[in-house]
Amino acid sequence: MTPRLTAFAGLAAALALAACGQDSGAPADAETGGVVNVYSARHYDVDQKLYEMFTEASGISVNRIEGSAPQLIARMQSEGAASPADVFVAADAGALWRAQEAGLLSPVASDALTAAVPANLRDPEGRWYGFQRRARVVAFDQARVQPNEIATYEDIASPRFRGQLCVRSSDNVYNLSLVGALIEAWGPEKTAEWARGVVANLARQPEGGDRDQIRAVAAGVCQIALTNSYYYVRMAAGDDAGDRAVTETVKLAFPSLDGQGAHVNISGGGVTANAPNREAAIQFLEFLASPEAQTLVSQENGEYPANPGVTVPAPTATYAEFTAHPMSVAAYGPRQAEAQALMTAAGWR
């Protein structure tokens, strides 16, 4: 463990007590030990707890600017070399790849990050690292669907589910990354056939987010739906009684891609090319990779730790017994344009 990560060890108990603060778009107070400016496309309450604990451990203040990934990428491009951004954080490997392709991220050589983040969950050049995993899987009506009927991704597009599938739009980055992974595994012809099957199976035109798809299954609109696993976990363990009731009848299945496991994606981040506080930015990434940080996010947001050595906490542990496909998440981004064209041609709106 490096000296920087050593400073973060032993925070587990304190993490549970961290209070959730408010987002800030104003410059942070750097009197205690510096500042790191985080451009974040993640919008979860637990992230603010992480930032507060990083400041407590390091003395470095965190200034968070929020927006969608495209908005933040465009902002950094317009700011150019004068951008105050030190770290870019996004909830999909495809979004991180877009920042990489725009020349906005710089390689980081860190023994701590290399040790904590498996090779298939980070950029080979060190421009970004994944800190949490999420699986793109199937929510199903347990009264009408048997788990063995959705054992593979091919099953989602099979005639068995004609008019019985709910899914988000084709331009959603989670779907683009999934289809990019299918192209990587199957090639464009088989993936195009699969996309046509998806369109034939739609119960309605794509609309809403992943939780809307899960709720639609419970309402009888469809029998199956594509969703990221953590949305379901949050519904099952959350404070909303209606959502908890949904997960009493709707269950989660983890299809396999070519017998190697379920498709997984990441949330992660990288140091920007023009980071004015580069050392603080690297410390921040190393903190996000620490067992304490990964455990907190898994516990409160339903994501899985990227580090296989970190025990998955409750309530996420209930849904953690699955095999993850070993494909490198770095393969998704370069396939996204092809994925979008293929889905559009199939009629997936």
Feature tags:
349 residues, alpha/beta, D-Maltodextrin-Binding Protein, domain 2, 2 domains, disordered N terminus
How many helical elements?
A: 15
Rg, Å, rounded = 20 Å
Major sheet: 9 strands, mixed
Strand portion: 5-15%
**Low-confidence sequence ranges:** 1-32
Class based on secondary structure composition and strand pairing: alpha/beta
How far the N terminus sits from the C terminus, by CA atoms, comes to 48 Å
* DSSP strand tally: 9
Can you identify the CATH superfamily of the largest domain? Periplasmic binding protein-like II
* CATH class assignment of the largest domain: Alpha Beta
- What would you call the shape? globular
Share of helical residues: 40-55%
What is the annotated CATH architecture of the largest domain?
3-Layer(aba) Sandwich
The succession of helices and strands, N to C, reads HHEHEHEHHEHEHHHEHHEEHHEH
By CATH, the topology of the largest domain is D-Maltodextrin-Binding Protein, domain 2
The mean pLDDT is 91
Total individual domains: 2
Structural commentary:
- By secondary structure, this protein is α/β, with parallel strands linked by helices.
- The chain folds into two domains: 3-133 and 264-319, 3-Layer(aba) Sandwich (D-Maltodextrin-Binding Protein, domain 2); 136-262 and 324-346, 3-Layer(aba) Sandwich (D-Maltodextrin-Binding Protein, domain 2).
- Helices cover 41% and strands 14% of the residues.
- It has 15 helices and nine strands.
- 51% of the residues are buried.
- Mean pLDDT is 91; it is low at 1-32.
